C-alpha cells in the first residue's frame, strides 16, 4: 500500500496556470509516475471535518466547489471520477473494528482536496476514489489511531493520500512584503517535520510522540494557526508506522512545503 501526504495548494489555482503553483503541478505529475499506479484511492482531505469519521459511499459522487472568490472558469472544472462503495464499506469496517466512530455517507461529494491534486496526478479520472473526513476535534492521537486502523486495508494496488498542506497560514501566503518572522517559522517547521519523519535514530514511538506534540515545534503555530491541513499527515503516519521513504520539498506560493511518501 502506497501512502503519501501532499501539500495541495490554494483552492483551484493549481489548475488555472497560477505561477505560484508551477512547482507543485510539476511535482504531482512526477509523483504519479514514480509510485505504483493504484486501482483504488482513499483520500483524507483537510477540507472535510465531521463529528464522526465519515466516508463517502456513493457510486458517482459529485464534485464540490468548496472555495470562494475565484474566476468563473474555476467553477466549470470537472473531475468525473467514480466512487467505490466496496472500498467505502471496507474503510468503515476497519475503523469500527478499532472502536472508533465511523459512518457512511452516500450523498456527500468530493471536495477540492481530492479532485484538484488528482486532476494533476491522474487526469483521466479513471481510478475509483473514496474520501474520508477528519474528526472535528482535530486530535492528533485520534487521527493517528485512524491511520493505524487503515492498516487493515493494506494491498499493493491501493493509495492512501493525505491531502493537506505542511504550511497553512493564509496571511502568510499573501503578506507583502514577506516578513522574516513568517519565513523563519515556515523554514523551522519544515525542518522539524523532516527531522521527525526521516531521521533514522528516531523510532516509531519517538516519532509518534513528536507528532502528538506538534504544536510545541519551532514555528508550529505560525505555520498552522489551525491544524486541519496538518492532521492528514497524522493519519498517514498512523497507517505507515515508520519513517517516510522519501521527502520532497516543494515551493508553493513562495512558501516551503512538503510531500512525504511511504512505498
Task: Give your account of this protein's structure.
The protein has a single domain (2-15, 26-170, 185-262), classed as Protocatechuate 4,5-dioxygenase, Chain B (3-Layer(aba) Sandwich), CATH 3.40.830.10. It has 263 residues and is of the alpha/beta class. The longest helix is centred in the last third of the chain and has 19 residues, at 180-198. It has 9 helices and 8 strands. The strands form 2 sheets. A 6-stranded mixed beta sheet has the order 5-2-6-1-8-7, sandwiched between helices. The mean pLDDT is 95. Helix 1 (22-34) packs across helix 3. It has helices at residues 22-34, 85-97, 112-121, 140-149, 170-174, 180-198, 204-212, 220-223, 231-240, and strands spanning 2-7, 40-50, 53-56, 102-105, 129-135, 158-164, 246-252, 255-262.
Q: From the structure provided, what is the oligomeric state, counting identical versus distinct chains?
A: single chain
Count of alpha and pi helical runs: 9
Q: Structural class of the secondary structure composition?
A: alpha/beta
Mean pLDDT: 95
Low-confidence stretches are none
CATH superfamily: LigB-like
**Spatial order of the strands in the main sheet?**
5-2-6-1-8-7
Assess the beta-strand content as a share of residues: 15-25%
- Looking at the overall shape, the CATH architecture is 3-Layer(aba) Sandwich
Shape: globular
| Main pleated-sheet profile | 6 strands, mixed
**Rg, Cα atoms, Å:** 17 Å
Amino acid at each position: 500500500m502506497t501512502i503519501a501526504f501532499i501539500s495541495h495548494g490554494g483552492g483551484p489555482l493549481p489548475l488555472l496556470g497560477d505561477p505560484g503553483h508551477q512547482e507543485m503541478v510539476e511535482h504531482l505529475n512526477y509523483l504519479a509516475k514514480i509510485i505504483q499506479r493504484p486501482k483504488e484511492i482513499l483520500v483524507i482531505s483537510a477540507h472535510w471535518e465531521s463529528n464522526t469519521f465519515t466516508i463517502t459511499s456513493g457510486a458517482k459522487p459529485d464534485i464540490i466547489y468548496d472555495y470562494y472568490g475565484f474566476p468563473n472558469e474555476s467553477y466549470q472544472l470537472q473531475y468525473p471520477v467514480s466512487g467505490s462503495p466496496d472500498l467505502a464499506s471496507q474503510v468503515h469496517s476497519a475503523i469500527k473494528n478499532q472502536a472508533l466512530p465511523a459512518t457512511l455517507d452516500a450523498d456527500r461529494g468530493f471536495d477540492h482536496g481530492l479532485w484538484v491534486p488528482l486532476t494533476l496526478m491522474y487526469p483521466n479520472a479513471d481510478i475509483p476514489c473514496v474520501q474520508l473526513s477528519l474528526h472535528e476535534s482535530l486530535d492528533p492521537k485520534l487521527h493517528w489511531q485512524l491511520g493505524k486502523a487503515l492498516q487493515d486495508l493494506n494491498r499493493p494496488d491501493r493509495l492512501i493520500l493525505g491531502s493537506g498542506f505542511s504550511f497553512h497560514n493564509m496571511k502568510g501566503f499573501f503578506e507583502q512584503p514577506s516578513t522574516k518572522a513568517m519565513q523563519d517559522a515556515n523554514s523551522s517547521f519544515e525542518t522539524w517535520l523532516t527531522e521527525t519523519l526521516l531521521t533514522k535514530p528516531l523510532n516509531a514511538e519517538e516519532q509518534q510522540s513528536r507528532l502528538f506534540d506538534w504544536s510545541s515545534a519551532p514555528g508550529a503555530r505560525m505555520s498552522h494557526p489551525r491544524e486541519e491541513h496538518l492532521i492528514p499527515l497524522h493519519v498517514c503516519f498512523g497507517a505507515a508506522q515508520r519513517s517516510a521513504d522519501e521527502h520532497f520539498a516543494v515551493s508553493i506560493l513562495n512558501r516551503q512545503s512538503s510531500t512525504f511518501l511511504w512505498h
